Amino acid sequence: MPATDTLSSLASSVLIVVDVQYDFLPGGALAVANGDQIIPTINRLAALFPHTIATQDWHPSGHISFASTHAGHQPFDVIELPYGPQVLWPEHCVQESHGAALSGQLHLPRTELVIRKGYHRQIDSYSAFMEADRRTPTGLAGYLRERGFTDCYVCGLATDFCVAWTALDARQAGFGVCVVEDACKGIDMNGSVAKAWADMAAAGVRRIHSCEIC
Ligand code: VGL
Ligand code: ZN
Question: Among the atoms of ligand 1, which is closest to the Cα of residue 18?
Answer without folding.
Answer: 6
